[in-house]
Amino acid sequence: MQGRKQFQPKLMYQVCLDDLVPQDNFYRILHRELDLNFLYQSTKHFYSTEGQESIDPVVFFKICLVGYLNNINYDRKLMQYCANEIAFRPGIKTSTYGGHIPKPEKIPQVHH
């Protein structure tokens, strides 16, 4: 007898990003093995003590690294890729963004 599953969408789902990304995922391994905490001290003198808080330098470097590894040359395309790539999000969970990708306006314009 042929079975048929009736999909009943729920109002709320409890989902953990860590459960959705496999342990052997490239980005998960990269974020686990690559310690970028030295960037806080190295970039400290570039930041003012006044004004709007900037993007976390570690998150910024990780986003740039994703752009380099995926050959993405445009800021908005890179931000769209990072927002859509669920495997990238657990790598920035330790930042002040709580796993959210910063908006493109917060990313400094880097011209090559």
Low-pLDDT stretches: none
The whole-number mean of residue pLDDT values reads 79
Give helix and strand order, one letter per element, not per position: HHHHH
Helix amount, in percent? 25-40%
Strand content: under 5%
Measure the end-to-end span. 63 Å
Number of DSSP-assigned strands: 0
Structural class given helices, strands, pairing? mainly alpha
> Could you describe the largest sheet, including whether it forms a barrel?
none
The number of helical elements comes to 5
Radius of gyration: 18 Å
Shape, per Cα inertia axes:
elongated
Give a topology summary:
Elements: H1 17-20, H2 26-33, H3 38-43, H4 57-69, H5 75-84
What does this structure look like?
The protein starts with 16 loop residues before the first helix and ends in a 28-residue tail after the last helix. Helix content is 37%, strand content 0%. It has helices at residues 17-20, 26-33, 38-43, 57-69, 75-84. The chain contains five helices and no strands. The chain is mainly α and 112 residues long. The mean pLDDT is 79. The radius of gyration is 18 Å and the shape is elongated. 16% of the residues are buried.
